Amino acid sequence: MSAESTGCVPEQPARRRIRRWWAWAPLVGLTVAVLVGALLRLVGRVGAADVVWAAVTVAALLPALWSMLRALWHRHFGVDVIAVLALAGALGVGEYLAGAVIAVMVATGRSLEAYAQRRATRDLRALLERAPRTARRRGPDGAIEVVPLDQVAVQDRLLVGPGDVVPVDGTVDEPVTLDESVVTGEARLVQRAAGEQVASGVVNAGAGFSMRATKSAAESTYAGIVRLAQEATARKAPTVRLADRYAAAFVPFTLVLAGLAWLLSGEVVRAVAVLVVATPCPLLLATPIAIVSGLSRVARRGVLVRDGGALELLGRAQTLLVDKTGTLTAGRPRAAETVAAPGGDRDEVLRLAASVEQLSPHVLAAALVRQAAERGLRLTEPTEVTEEPGVGVSGRVDGRLIRVGQFSGELPDWADRTRARTELTGWSTVWVSDDDGPLGAILLEDPVRPDARRTVRRLRAAGLRRIVMVTGDRPATAAQVAEAVGVDDMLARCTPQEKVARVRTEAERAVTVMVGDGVNDAPALAQAHVGVAMGATGASASADVADAVLTVDRLDRLADAVEIARYARRIAVQSATVGMGLAVLAMIAAAIGRLPPVAGAFLQEGIDVLVILNALRALRGGLRHRDVPQRTRELLGRFATEHQGVRDVLAGLRDTADLVATDPASPRCLPAVRETHRRLTDEVLPHEAAEEQQLYPALAGPLGSGAATATMSRAHVEIRRQVDLLGAQLAQTTGDRLRPDQVPDLLATLYGLDALLRLHLAQEEEEFFSLDPSDPQPEPR
């Protein structure tokens, strides 16, 4: 499989630049010629000026005539029909200046649409570039040879190195750790035992392993994904331009009216006047200006839309299908919580794990190291590091042998409770242990994007009626995400073929948008009316077959794009409707002999100016949310950083509550409760008070009113009340231990505070902190 074989040969940059320049040459040439004619007219060379303007008219008429004939051959009426009639009519009555102006308008509209089309091309280059082209094959004598992929046969023994893409479908000879997100969308690493099947296209996230091919390259999973994307792209119908849809009604009306004017009056000049006034500049110019303005605006918001047709469809979308992993979620694991053994230290557990994992290529290892760096922990260089695929990594840190990964021994009670909790939440557990047993556990999650729920609400407000999540992930995990973001329907364990089928079904009912980030999403993106790729973090294959690409790692840019697309399309429709309405009135006046061709030409230019000015409104407006001032952004960043400290207090709060619940008679209970109360009083309450006094007033502008923060303010009151209640309960204690009658009320307060604070933090991050836009370029004021 090669780029050449599929026609996706990269174009030379210099050639592309030359072609872009020549695309504007007709417009530049016609404009210069019109100005030359005007100069000749000013110096008294009227005949010469008419010749120049007539030549300009002819120069525009010939390609328009060819385009019209080609469209008519395919039984399609477009704006070219009106343009040809107007240009020919201007020549027929000797209105050469009017014909020349019409020619410039026609050329400008074509140039603008061509510019939109040239923003990008639809190809599968990245999908093909990522496809493996060679494989390491083990010969009969045990030697390893690198062979072209098409030479791999069924039953061949292959070797897959660390970080390599599995070249063909097969079975593994030993336990392996794989990153299957490219095919399934599942963010977590997957362990496969010896003898299990693996699909081509997945990435080896562990040590090298050997496998036996069960399919050839052409029959393997990855090749099937490529074929699906190619077939879906080939089947996709061409977009009907907005201007052509209006022209379908406007062309017959113009012809009938011009014919009646000639027939009833017997004066051909009336028919020509109707044609001149009917010049479709509101369609040819105002509509592309509105659409291209929308393209420019969404680009400033970090969304690249490939062409005006895609923007028009985005503005009419009714259904959204969205992938989960990497789209609604971050797509990469994050250390959600660190649990230490009783008497242990969370930071030390994380430091030991990250120190050992520094040399590992695993995605999970990167998450641990990143988390340790964020907490400012100083890592130690490990020694004697070994890695067992499917088991974990071990190494010596400060003289101790530390193991990170699975734990095969019997778990103590605290670890059993931790494992049960992670299974309920759908998180992954990484155990950190030494020779004496587990020291702690690090709980990993693929978090829902903070802006996901807000984006879903904005999309509904913008006019989308149905939002469906499609994912290759497990039903339980998918259901949690679907409920968190508020989608209408969900399809879990979804293969690329099933995604394509679902998109096709939805597309038969309404204009459908598909959003995804992985190679497995590429066929579905190509099948949808509008495919949107998460280009900042997703696979380049998805970006190349999509109609729009989010170049920043923020899902709310999709809502921006939909709002701008709907606004630009509304302005385009308004410009075309108003322009054609005024033109119809002028055409009626021309038909009854009240408007001669010369006056009609000037009137038409006035209509053109009006609708063009209206189309320029698409350069601003349409967004439903307000930009965040710089000072407010700084506050959002500051309090978002402080949330990590609050989460540390939360982790201690949960441990204290568990200790009181499982061993209330322990001498450690009362000191732990007192320490928790101290941290709540000294760290959490000042944070909440500062938010109330500084952040919430600053958010009144971006949110539209101070009432938007009222619910959060009420939560602050309740948090303070619960902390005060905890203090009052502590004041009733005597001695150095808790009394049995105190335990129920104390547990209610501790667990209640834990739930209340977690919900409050999540709401703030979703509703407020997701407002920090980090725009690539600010919107014009």
Condensed summary:
The chain is α+β, with helices and mostly antiparallel strands and 781 residues long. It is built from 27 helices and 22 strands. Among the domains are: 133-166 and 168-219, Calcium-transporting ATPase, cytoplasmic transduction domain A, CATH 2.70.150.10; 334-445, 3-Layer(aba) Sandwich (Calcium-transporting ATPase, cytoplasmic domain N), CATH 3.40.1110.10; 630-771, Up-down Bundle (Four Helix Bundle (Hemerythrin (Met), subunit A)), CATH 1.20.120.
Structure, explained:
The chain is an alpha+beta fold and 781 residues long. Among the domains are: 133-166 and 168-219, Distorted Sandwich (Calcium-transporting ATPase, cytoplasmic transduction domain A); 334-445, Calcium-transporting ATPase, cytoplasmic domain N, CATH 3.40.1110; 630-771, Four Helix Bundle (Hemerythrin (Met), subunit A) (Up-down Bundle), CATH 1.20.120. It has 27 helices and 22 strands. The strands form 4 sheets. Strands 10-22-21-20-11-18-19 form a 7-stranded mixed beta sheet, with helices on both faces. Strand 1 and strand 2 form a beta hairpin. Helix 9 runs parallel beside helix 22, helix 11 runs parallel beside helix 23 and helix 12 crosses helix 22. The longest helix is centred in the last third of the chain and has 36 residues, at 556-591. It starts with 12 loop residues before the first helix and ends in a 14-residue tail after the last helix.
